[in-house]
Amino acid sequence: MAPLGNLRHRPVRRLTQLYAGLVLYGLSMALMIRSGLGLDPWDVFHQGLARQTGLSFGTVTIAVGAVVLLLWIPLRQRPGLGTVSNVVVIGLVVDGVLAVLPPGEGLPVRVTLLVVGIVANGAATGLYLGAGLGPGPRDGLMTGFTARHPRWSLRLVRTVIEVTVLALGWMLGGTVGLGTVAYALAIGPLAQLFIPIFALPPRPANAYAA
Length: 210
Prior knowledge:
Layout: H1 11-35, H2 41-53, H3 57-70, H4 72-75, H5 81-100, H6 107-130, H7 137-148, H8 154-172, H9 178-198
Helix pairs in contact: 1-5, 1-6, 2-3, 2-8, 3-5, 3-7, 6-9, 7-8
């Protein structure tokens, strides 16, 4: 099997898909923020930190991603190009979109922003994971921990981490609401729908032959 992030197989398709997914992911986060109806657990945490520190949402997202990536070291996880790009690109995009997108006014507009944001987030997840260039730092933390501690299921580890960051984010002033519940219910089925759609075709058996 090729090393994670190896670009010898369909590099143009994979890079295009990776960065399209990361840009769409940042856009989806901005849409949910502007809905004002609640965020996913990690973004509740990011927003809470941003409000307490005065830093931009994107800057906090990048900083937290970098710290989480450092936690990969004791787990012996190897980041790919997609992992490092995830840390930087999403934060830059979300700040850029927030700079031009005003908050939604009126409940119908806010609900529309939320729904479009959640669906776009699911599609973005399928795009960047399907590129096969490495998971995001937060997803890698979960999979790395379960690989090192097989008695813990991925579902349990994800639940513990996300409940923890959600609680911390709420205490710091992050927005918890209808959107938080809607995201939790919808993101699993959406990811299950989009990941196969954007998954790359299997590599040829001799693609990496010497």
